Amino acid sequence: MEPNNATSMHSHCVDITMEVHQVVPPPYKSTLQKFKARLKETFFPDDPLRQFQGQSLNRKLILGAQYVFPILQWGPNYTLKLFKSDFVSGLTIASLAIPQGISYAKLANLPPIVGLYSSFVPPLVYAVLGSSRDLAVGPVSIASLVMGSMLRQEVSPTLDPLLFLQLAFTSTFFAGIFQASLGILRLGFIIDFLSKAILIGFMAGAAIIVSLQQLKSLLGITHFTNQMGLIPVMSSVFHNIHEWSWQTILMGICFLVLLLLARQVSIRKPKLFWVSAGAPLVSVIISTLLVFAIKGQKHGISVIGKLQQGINPPSLNMLRFHGTYLGLVMKTGLITGILSLTEGIAVGRTFAALRNYKVDGNKEMIAIGFMNVVGSSTSCYVTTGAFSRSAVNNNAGAKTAVSNIVMSVTVMVTLLFLMPLFQYTPNVVLGAIIVTAVIGLIDIPAAIHIWRIDKFDFIVMLVAFFGVIFISVQLGLAIAVGLSTFKILLQITRPKTVMLGKIPGTDIYRNLDQYKEAERIPGFLILSIEAPINFANITYLNERTLRWIEEEDNIKEHSNLRYIILEMSAVSAIDTSGISFFRELKSTLEKKGVELVLVNPLGEVIEKLKKADEDNDFIRTDNLFLTVGEAVASLSSTMKSQSSTMTEGAQTIVAHY
Amino acid sequence: MEPNNATSMHSHCVDITMEVHQVVPPPYKSTLQKFKARLKETFFPDDPLRQFQGQSLNRKLILGAQYVFPILQWGPNYTLKLFKSDFVSGLTIASLAIPQGISYAKLANLPPIVGLYSSFVPPLVYAVLGSSRDLAVGPVSIASLVMGSMLRQEVSPTLDPLLFLQLAFTSTFFAGIFQASLGILRLGFIIDFLSKAILIGFMAGAAIIVSLQQLKSLLGITHFTNQMGLIPVMSSVFHNIHEWSWQTILMGICFLVLLLLARQVSIRKPKLFWVSAGAPLVSVIISTLLVFAIKGQKHGISVIGKLQQGINPPSLNMLRFHGTYLGLVMKTGLITGILSLTEGIAVGRTFAALRNYKVDGNKEMIAIGFMNVVGSSTSCYVTTGAFSRSAVNNNAGAKTAVSNIVMSVTVMVTLLFLMPLFQYTPNVVLGAIIVTAVIGLIDIPAAIHIWRIDKFDFIVMLVAFFGVIFISVQLGLAIAVGLSTFKILLQITRPKTVMLGKIPGTDIYRNLDQYKEAERIPGFLILSIEAPINFANITYLNERTLRWIEEEDNIKEHSNLRYIILEMSAVSAIDTSGISFFRELKSTLEKKGVELVLVNPLGEVIEKLKKADEDNDFIRTDNLFLTVGEAVASLSSTMKSQSSTMTEGAQTIVAHY
């Protein structure tokens, strides 16, 4: 049925009388009750304890255990069939995890082995605590980059590697603590302030920063800047042209092309996901053999070098909670924590939506946080749910977190027996792997989409992007977040006020600009305020309303303004300043001989207005209506009865009935 | 007429057919047009150039001049009659200004004479530029206190008085620059963030801090703490009991009682305003004579001492824009500037509203700012429209800013000839004057009012109060502002979503909690979202909506949920994240076999939804309606035609027609 053409139904004759419905305040609630309700909505909007209601104690205990350890939910009915697919996907992500782990560790200026450590313990922890079935856990490029750059500002990883490592672990510890407490304190909504627009801009910027860092290994430069920004890196690249090694460059280009091709294949044909998934490991193997064969390191191709064997050594003794660097590690922990958390949660939500199950944000935060706390005491640096890895995991048909366990076992085997093989792996290939991985973070279509829909969001995105490239990762982010928060505040300080008109033949009143057919009603000025009224906007609202009135007075035919109707359906809240706004407005209007009428004030608003009313009545039942239609109708009938000359406005109304 | 009982009008029979009106996007505007409109609403809501429209060039020039120098508006038609009342009020406030000036200067740890200087030049400047007729200009207690305390944290006024004076003048200069630029850049709304609640708490706190500082002179203590907080002051008071001088205390009590009595008299009988207005000068004269007679200073009563004669020396050469203290003076300027600005604007608005004329906030800021810039180069420290003084001014019948000129001339005469008389004025009396002045800032009834209307505002007020008393003036303020801003953000991150029901016998849908008679319609879940939808709240909205639905499913009789209607009249804005929210919600609902229906999306919202729709249609005309009534009606008719079993909901609807 096409709504615009009228569908006439069996219509019968009814005797309509103009009835006026009253605005009533909501049923009384004590301050404590309100406070409780508010608290619940703020911190427990998902109502996690719902499932416990009306269960036996025994059942409650089981549910509780399952709530804390999701593995107890799906573990019991885990089948061999599920394991098969988990096994395949586990091996696949392992083949990606090993080279990525080594590369990202280098990105964070940490020994390559730490990257592998971080792909061993954390996945096991997540498998027990995590509620996502697709998340593949491990170190990620952005968090690695940020941690490396922040720590490097105060400690040199080359001059004092031990201290640097200690600080990295301590930062990881704080990141974990911070993430877990966000979840426990139910403050998960804080990460919502990293809006989609910000993330797109930030990720693109970070991708470029990361790729720039790879120029060191891709060009085989030995003296490279410690800074991250576009300008310093570029200058250091072109001031060291004499260091460029053509062998390295050649090798780099070859593998870069190989990896990018593999990526394209998998993008074109999702069934061939394993091509891009396997490519990194393959290129590591090939390049290693190549270097070993041609004694590449003699031709200026730098290699990883010796890596000690064995699984993660305990690192609890390496956490430093004292001394000069405490501030630094806490700051680093906070920022890397929130960044990795955002990526982890976003990835988790994405795949949950894809496969139609729910992940509990706050629970995920606790899982990820705990994972990092454990990691920090087992020689791992900050880890989270990695986007690229999880995508591969999902494509490879992972069914449960068991794929994480398979991956971590594979990594363990590598750590125990296969480390010597990596001795001749050239750094240039690791660089190529990173570049290929992060290029996927640049999402042009999304940027265009944002431009089309919301220009301001686009600006925020650009700010994040250029901020990250030219200033610094954390500052760029901070500015972008500040800007988008400022926009929200601006919407409050400058709320929209629109003039409503009557849509002919109905009782519907709508925005005059939007609905051209809507018509003014002489003697009435009908305004709709579209924001909570509070200290931040009463001055503006006052000036704006007075301007509406003055503009009225200038129009001759409307000069006989009698009533101002404020449609308050959109005023969701009000504070003491808001109350005083109405009081002042009313007195100003009385001086002009205009009466103030309120329509449909919502629960909280009418409640407060009535409370404030006890001392001075500016809310009487005859200037308070439930709908604009009723207000206009009853007021114009009074106008009629009062004034001898009857306005057309009233006529139309009466005609309508 | 009583609205609740139905007023039956001439009702005639009409043949109603169920008509469905379409939601239309607003007429096309280019990004630039939108941007301009937004800019205007943000920075020129009062539309200051309105009066210039359609005037001759000549007239425009005159209007322009009058706009910059309000004195040109009222000057020409100034009469002797007006002058008489201005003269009286001018003298009255002068008698208050002289002792207050001396006292407040001491409060700011500045030489007393500076207080008099500051009551001479600034009033003249304001008389030319200011647009308020009642504002009496001069130094004020709070700004003096804050400036004194902030500067004293880094420089001792006793050890290095010259440097301290230079910093005070420089801070005043920056305060003026800051105030003026706020006005010029039309950023006046920034001071709105000091809400009424904050100011009440802050003023009360400041009053107590100021009074505590007076214990030094009231008890005659010589070794007094440099700090402001309650605890340090109290401890220093009781650690120096041996320094207390009974003569000083006795004198202090006498004059304190005298002044408080005078204040009471004027509060009881506003006609006797001159009693409290004159009291300070009277007590200064009496106490001075007394001390002179009994050689008080020999009995341990400390006096002001010699004051040099003559009017303001130029102080341009004393402004320091370099060196270590630049940061300090800028910070001090910023904070004292915003504080004095807030007081000035608030006072101006209050009396303007009282006498029904308008003051232009941004123009006032420019006037006050310029006043302070000039002041800083003529040995004045920060000044503004003082509340107590303006109240007296208004009571004394001031008609124009001429009263300020009269006051400043009187002060000039004092500076030129009467300074020696103040040599024997005891500090204890000045202390008593300050205490009496600031006690008026503690507004208990207002606090109670706030408690009754809005508990959160009350908490903010307490935070400001205790923050000022126990931490520091600027930090206490900052925390309070942060808290109230956080509340606004919380309203956005946790928007209200309420379930609507049909008010029987009407087409009106309202909140089910608020309107008990309203009834659900089976098969429908009607939700109203009461905030802009953006990155900060989509996660919450998603969870909340899903919870609404799950709760539905648990109720057996509603389990046949077919449609979710989102009433969007209160969604004033949306961003790209908001768009994605709708897309995700729609797909989730489709999985549950529920259809998403939108009602009355406002201009901006429908516009963006349609834009986003170009690639994937989730907005079709048959799930987009102008009112809930029409949506329910037409949807239940389709339901009827589809499903063989017809729900009662549809019946009621049909019955209604």
Tell me about this structure.
The structure is a homodimer of 657-residue chains. The first copy, chain A, is mainly alpha-helical and 657 residues long. Helices cover 59% and strands 5% of the residues of chain A. Chain A has two domains: 416 residues, no CATH class; 152 residues, Transcription Regulator spoIIAA (2-Layer Sandwich), CATH 3.30.750.24. In chain A, the strands form two sheets. The first copy, chain A, has a six-stranded mixed beta sheet with strand order 4-3-5-6-7-8. In chain A, strands 1-2 form a two-stranded antiparallel ribbon. Chain A is elongated, with a radius of gyration of 32 Å. The N terminus and C terminus of chain A are likely disordered. At the A-B interface, helix 1, helix 9, helix 18, helix 19 and helix 20 of A face helix 1, helix 9, helix 18, helix 19 and helix 20 of B. Chains A, B: It is a multi-pass membrane protein. Chains A, B: Belongs to the SLC26A/SulP transporter (TC 2.A.53) family.
